[in-house]
Amino acid sequence: MTKPECRMTKEQGFTLIELLVIIAIIAALIGLAFPVFQGVLDRAKKVQAKNDLTQIVTAVNAFYTEYGRYPLASTVTTDKIYGPEGISSSTVFNELRNAGSVSINTRQIVFISPAEDTSQPSPKGKVGSDGQLHDPWGTAYNVEIDGDYTSAIETNPYSDSDGSAGATPLRQGVIGWSYGKDQTKGTKGDSAKFKRSDDVISWQ
Question: For the chain, which residues make up each domain, given as ranges?
């Protein structure tokens, strides 16, 4: 190799210090970008939860339109909560999905068709082995249905006096909500408050 070629090779290479500086810069950029990426991911999950809740409410209302009743046992005569705050929502989702044991959906209509993973009890964004539909963080959605057929949910699940979670009663036949990323209802330290919480609700 000639002297000019050797000189060119040395000039084109990186020293160990230069490589370490480049790695440090890349690591710093990743550190700055990660919170932004995490924020985008969290917002995307909230949008997904809102979409899921809209689909659930639409499916229950479609069921009512088809059968003239909600997918509830005939013994239910009051507003009923299904999910973490009540009893398992599996029976409701079985009727809506025409899956498992159904007794009301006699025409075997599929009103909602979410993804499922029965190998897990609470898969994120899917129906699990427990038969419930879970939000993007892995907690089952809460669904409340107007079991006394008064065209209203008598008690708002959140008690914000400023109306940030809507009025009481809620003039809807079905509502749904997710606990959000922290998987806990309401504002930190006050499970009855919706304001400033990361919860997602269907009625706003």
Answer: 17-86+140-201
